[in-house]
Amino acid sequence: MSRRRAGILISGRGSNMAALLDAASDPSYPAEIGVVLSNRPEAPGLERARAAGVEAVAVDHRAFGRDRQAHERAVDGVLRANGTEIVCLAGYMRLLTPWLIARWQGRMLNIHPSLLPDLPGLNTHARALAEGRTEHGCTVHLVTEDMDAGPIIAQSRVPVLPDDDADGLAARVLAQEHLLYPKALALFVAREDLGGGTLQPVAGPP
Ligand code: GAR
Questions:
Q1: Which of 3, 8, 41, 123 is deepest in the core (most CB within 10 A)?
Q2: pLDDT digits over 189-202, tens only?
Q3: Model-wide pTM > 0.90
């Protein structure tokens, strides 16, 4: 069976990206990583991807001023030139416009550090502690126009310990993210290959 070609969007460290690259280095994994793209040229994840032999490209959002869609068109161009079929957001800290979301509808995954639909948005670990939650975790979901609210593909649960601080909790959730994202991508591809999914042919340029 041919492998699906994924592109990964990052903004920084890229530890989830590295987990996906590790998984995809096994030829029996159902996806290959064709390109890693960052909106920040200084993102450490870019070097990490290059070291793994994967094409890594910066498309600096600052070069596009306030024109978010122009930046996204450049990002989209890189993804399409690379033959991307599935986009994985992995710590990509940009709000997407409806244009890019529509372009990749049903084919764009995100990882979020909470048990969605609980705690969408930022600072999820501190908020989980402030709310006195006993359970926290991470979610891989499809990206839709409603932020952090698309259909859930997979989740991992992490207990909140009595002496947890935000950093300690974040580290334990991150360790689960690294296990979850490769599993969720494989699950997504398997579902598509069974014909039960939503993977559509790539639309031509508008
Ligand atoms: C991860 O914890 C990811 O879940 C989170 O950013 C971190 C990126 O780390 N994403 C979001 O908060 C998206 N809303 P990484 O660059 O080491 O993968």
A1: 8
A2: 999 888 765 554 44
A3: yes
